[in-house]
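Margin note from the TA: students keep mixing up input and output lines. Inputs are the sequences; the output is the structure of the whole complex. Example:
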Amino acid sequence: MPPATTPSRTERLSRPQQVADAIKQWVMENGWQPGDRLPSETEMIARFGMAKGTIREAVRILEAQGLVKSRTGPGGGVFVHQVSEERATALLGNYFYFAQLSIDDLYQIREALEPELAASLAGKLDDHQLAALEAVMASYAEPARDAEEEREQHIASLRFHALLAEMSDNRLLRFLIKFTANMLADVTVSRRLYAQPNRELWASGIAYQSRLVAALRCGDSAAARQILREHMRGAHRLMCLQEAELTQRFLPEIDIL
Amino acid sequence: MPPATTPSRTERLSRPQQVADAIKQWVMENGWQPGDRLPSETEMIARFGMAKGTIREAVRILEAQGLVKSRTGPGGGVFVHQVSEERATALLGNYFYFAQLSIDDLYQIREALEPELAASLAGKLDDHQLAALEAVMASYAEPARDAEEEREQHIASLRFHALLAEMSDNRLLRFLIKFTANMLADVTVSRRLYAQPNRELWASGIAYQSRLVAALRCGDSAAARQILREHMRGAHRLMCLQEAELTQRFLPEIDIL
DNA sequence: CCCAATTTGTTCGTATGTATC
DNA sequence: AGATACATACGAACAAATTGG
């Protein structure tokens, strides 16, 4: 288990926080692994010489971070738990909630990471995996007829990229690409960037993704990288236009600032 | 404030978790911002009809995620708080604690992101910022004489990259590069990859960084990208050699597997 | 410097819920 | 069904920290 969350500051830590840190360290020292049971509440109360409530708050802290899980009943208790990807995504998402990431910010990351992902996967995927990618593409083979369909297709298209990321054995790359796609989905949906169908974006997306799957199949790493690089640039450009148009349409008073 | 951390599952949530989610939503609905005070414990007890301990556990959950902070005394209370970068780093670090990221994983990310960062900063830095970079470089102008110095220089060199990242106005890029560098520092230190001074790595690092600062100064974006790309490739190669050598030295029995 | 008010922090005893045998 | 072993929740009292008079 990783080191304590807040070791640097010299400020007085609350007792539950101290206990949480102590438990963390305790788990590390003993090399306890996911699935292993921590001592029961009663034992911890004795071990730390603190009241039940304090111990419980400490356990809640670890639980909120996704590091432990507790179950009631006989054989129950507090168990070491591997932080799930969903939990990690949510926790990191909190950090960027106030940050106001722009379309440009997100695409700068996508333009760097996704071509690299494609290049590293070329020639490494089996028929089953390639078929799965084509199956996702099929879900938006027809252009959207209204805003609702447009939104669904947009999400599905991001799923294509998430699925591709899933196929990498680099867990960090996998996480970062999926996280960025998630944030992009949040931004575009919350800012209604998909209010009107954008036929050009749809058509170019389909074309790029088909070419990409072909390149992945025949193991052409350089082509895969290049295709995804162009795909990202194109999508970036169209998204910014969309954003600009929307800004102009709904917030004309911004001109006078 | 971002949506509840665990909305998807249909499993029964603990009451503190429910309360925490409710508070989150409450904050979002009212558009409360960092610094704003939440209702007092007493009010929440009345509002949710629950015991004090339950409310406190809920607040602890939010506090563990870095979303609120509480202070005692008059004028005290629970306050909405912007998740700090340190907290976000620690929380995401938890996710990768069990994941066993390899040197290759980390450098695949660095090779994709750092050249992009360099390119985007070329010509945008003022004299003060360029001087700051050179100051960090000066801290390892002389080759290390022992393992301890080698470790220090290694950390300082990662600080160079963190400082560079700090100069980007893309908060996501900034965070990802610093996070990756942090994880790399953890891995190399914990696995003693810097036990013996590596003169070649030191010399090439210095050379690349000098050239980089020059390219940044004269605004040559393409050159900056290319230099950092080569720098990362070189460092990656040398780190892997170091890793291989160390594996061979300390774990010879791995051959028989 | 102390005192009083306010708000979170901690304790303890008890009771309830839940899963296993 | 009942006993057991756990976490979970409640409530009342007390402690500690901070602010202002």
